[in-house]
Amino acid sequence: MPIRRITEYPEEVLGKLGQPVTEFGPELAALCNDMYETMYDAEGVGLAAPQIGLNLRLFVMDCNGIKLVAANPEIIATDGEQSGQEGCLSVGKVPAVVVRPAKARLRAQDLKGEWFEQEAEGYAARCFMHETDHCNGTLFIDHLPKLRRDMVVKRFKKEKNWK
Ligand SMILES: [Zn+2]
User: Is residue 32 classed as helix, strand or coil in its secondary structure?
Assistant: First the structure.
């Protein structure tokens, strides 16, 4: 199973509203295996389909004991507030503090197309929201005040040039 190339900001696919997943068969399972391999290889805790160049509402995650595939994800409830460091494989893992809800309830379909709901708090809740955002064409830097967003982008571009 191949490791896929991870798309990087500002590639267009990262800013697009994802298309719904409609086929729940062996191809989807194989795709999710590739996504897991790609995510583990990059030492990430979540990876969404746009990050491998696919305009699809789909993500995989393995974060704080929650490992799941989410097709057509939605955040249906949130509570509280947390402020913490966040980074993204598509923005070179440059970290920035993002304020988000402390708890989040995810609704999504699994590999068989069955709807499920899962609640998380802390870092895993952050992951739910970060990956669901990817399916909507939103990056974590879009949650930052302009000045800090510019700083993250600048540092990302600088680090890319060193490679
Ligand atoms: Zn990301």
Answer: helix
pLDDT in tens, 120-146: 999 999 999 999 999 999 999 999 999
User: What is the C-alpha separation between 108 and 104, in angstroms, rounded?
Assistant: 13
Spatial separation of the C-alpha atoms in residues 8 and 113, rounded to whole Å: 29
Q: How far is the CA of 22 from the centre of ligand 1 (A)?
A: 23
Distance, CA 10 to ligand 1 centroid (Å)?
Answer: 12
Residues with CB under 5 A from ligand 1 (ion): 88
pTM: 0.97
Residue 131 bears catalytic tag:
yes
Alpha carbon separation from 110 to 13, 22, 105 (Å, rounded): 23, 12, 15
28 CA distance to ligand 1 middle (Å): 20
**Is the predicted pLDDT of residue 1 greater than 80, yes or no?**
no
